Amino acid sequence: MSVQFFYCKTRYKLQQSDRHKKWIIYCVKKLGFSIRQINIVFISATNLKLLNKQFLKRNYDTDIITFDNSHCRILDIELYISPATVKYNAKQFKSTFSNEMQRVIIHGILHCCGYNDNSVKNIKRMRNAETYFINRFK
After folding, report:
1. At what angle do helices 83-92 and 45-56 cross, to 10 degrees?
2. Burial of 12 (0-12, 13-18, 19+ CB in 10 A)
3. pLDDT per 10-residue tile (average), the chain, 138 residues
4. Nearest to residue 24, comparing CAs of 72, 88, 79?
5. Torsion of CA 30, 107, 20, 82, to 10 degrees
6. What's the pLDDT at 29?
7. pTM of the entire structure?
8. Helices 97-112 and 83-92: crossing angle, nearest 10°?
9. What is the pLDDT of residue 128?
10. In angstroms, rounded to a whole number, what is the distance separating the alpha carbons of residues 78 and 69?
């Protein structure tokens, strides 16, 4: 079981990374999954947009892209996150950067655990789960 943070072409450094690792493990277990590996890679907004275009054929900025190689409720995932975009979104949503970063991390994990945000009903379910787990970090 491994949760790793990587910093690529960005000066961002996740605060309380050990606490985040414990929180991620807690969330995954609470969702009924186990972890083979979770890699969280922080990259520039430009590079994330390039990944979005290359792998998802979407030509726009995003805060996270998730690559899921999980099998049988065992997570094996990579989350690529743009701290700059998270910071921008935090201002837009009148949230703190820390809270928005947690929301993005758990959002990616929830997607890999079967949650979707493709309808109003599913968006509400996703947001409720995000809020529930963010409140467990505090």
Report:
1. 100
2. middle
3. 83 92 97 96 96 93 96 97 97 96 98 96 98 93
4. 79
5. 170
6. 97
7. 0.94
8. 110
9. 98
10. 8
Q: Which of 45, 46, 20, 24 is nearest to 35 (CA)?
A: 24
Cα–Cα distance for residue pair 33/111, rounded to 1 Å: 13
For residue 25, give the amino acid letter: I
Pairing of strands 34-42, 3-7: parallel
The sign of the torsion formed by the CA atoms of 110, 1, 69, 83 equals positive
Task: Determine the pLDDT at residue 8.
Answer: 81
